[in-house]
Design a protein that fits this description.
By secondary structure, this protein is mostly helical. Helix content is 82%, strand content 0%. The protein contains 8 helices and no strands. The mean pLDDT is 83.
Length: 192
């Protein structure tokens, strides 16, 4: 589980590095613009900071507090990615040939949002709390990564590389954690 936790923490660090975008925006740019950037770009930073505190003992024991924390975060990530879809629609409407771009990106958004919602829903189907928490972590990582990749395409900011790759590392780390937790539960009994 050590390798999986290292991947998870590296990914969380990548999410935290999105703070560069939040720090570029200052209250002098206008309080509305600053609050908007804080909501849109600050969510992955908060998720990354809280992921840095995840320990293997919490996942192995299957604590309810951790599961509820990641349940709430995964639910917010579903709402956050839908919010981004509306923001992207606003950005794209100012581009040339925006009708065709909107049509093509709508399919991409179905892909990104449906994977986020699918991860959230499948987490509830998992009976053990440690595995459920890991699946909620995967949901949050996927949402942050998808948003960062699409923002790199539209906004052309260098700060998006870290959360784009970091979100995928969170997904990979949480997937490996879930697999290892499942292996412990499904191990054959040692009857003599």
């Amino acid at each position: 589980m050590r390798t999986a936790l290292i991947l998870l923490r590296l990914g969380a660090l990548g999410l935290v590095l999105e703070a560069g975008l939040v720090l570029e925006m200052t209250p002098q740019d206008g309080p509305l613009m600053w609050m908007r950037s804080l909501i849109l770009f600050g969510f992955p930073v908060l998720c990354g900071l809280s992921m840095l505190a995840v320990q293997s003992t919490h996942l192995e024991k299957g604590g309810r507090t951790l599961m509820y924390l990641w349940y709430g975060t995964a639910f917010l990530s579903v709402l956050w990615i839908v919010l981004w879809c509306f923001v992207w629609l606003s950005i794209i409407s100012g581009m040339d040939n925006h009708e065709m771009i909107i049509k093509h990106t709508a399919y991409l958004h179905l892909f990104g949002v449906s994977f986020t919602m699918g991860g959230y829903a499948t987490a509830w189907m998992t009976p053990r709390l440690g595995e459920r928490s890991a699946r909620f972590l995967m949901t949050v990582g996927w949402a942050a990564s998808y948003v960062a990749w699409f923002n790199m395409y539209l906004l052309k900011e260098i700060w998006f590389w870290a959360p784009a790759i970091g979100g995928l590392l969170v997904v990979l780390g949480a997937f490996l954690i879930e697999r290892q937790l499942k292996r412990v539960v499904e191990a054959p009994s040692q009857l003599s």
